[in-house]
């Protein structure tokens, strides 16, 4: 089993080939190919963390579509003053299907 830890949108994601992940919005159209930098690669019993070796590893994926994340409710309240403020937020996200992890020995 081969998997990789990649940096995607300010976070690290564990990915395998064929898996679909949700990352922060990527400015690419549906069907476009994106690459992610690998931080760690596990190939069976061998674990690769060397930066020189990982520079040759490419994790590629295909953009499926754009979605909205879960709604976050923000409520500010101060008692005895009548101050209330309500706000909501939904992050724009992109779904990516991992197609290949290449360059692994």
Q: Can you tell me about this structure?
A:
With 105 residues, this protein is mostly beta strands. The chain has one domain (2-102). Helix content is 4%, strand content 64%. Strands 1, 2, 3, 4, 5, 6 and 9 form a seven-stranded antiparallel sheet that branches. It is elongated and about 65 Å long.
User: What is the end-to-end distance?
Assistant: 13 Å
Q: Mean of residue pLDDT?
A: 94
- Radius of gyration over all CA atoms, rounded: 19 Å
Count of extended strands: 9
- Give the low-confidence spans: none
What structural category characterises the helix and strand content? mainly beta
Q: Could you spell the SSE succession in H and E letters?
A: EEEEEHEEEE
- Work out the count of structural domains: 1
**Total number of helical segments?**
1
As a percent range, the share of strand residues is over 45%
| Envelope shape | elongated
| Most strands sheet | 7 strands, antiparallel
Structural topology:
Blueprint: E1 2-8, E2 11-15, E3 20-24, E4 33-43, E5 46-48, H1 51-54, E6 58-68, E7 72-78, E8 83-89, E9 92-102
């Amino acid at each position: 089993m081969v998997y990789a830890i990649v940096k995607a949108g300010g976070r690290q994601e564990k990915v395998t080939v064929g898996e679909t992940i949700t990352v922060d919005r990527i400015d690419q159209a549906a069907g476009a190919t994106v690459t992610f930098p690998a931080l760690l690669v596990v190939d069976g019993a061998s674990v690769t963390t060397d930066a020189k070796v990982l520079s040759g590893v490419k994790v590629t994926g295909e953009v499926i579509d754009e979605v909205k994340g879960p709604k976050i409710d923000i409520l500010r309240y101060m008692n005895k003053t009548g101050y209330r403020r309500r706000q909501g937020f939904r992050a724009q996200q992109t779904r990516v299907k991992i197609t290949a992890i290449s360059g692994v020995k």
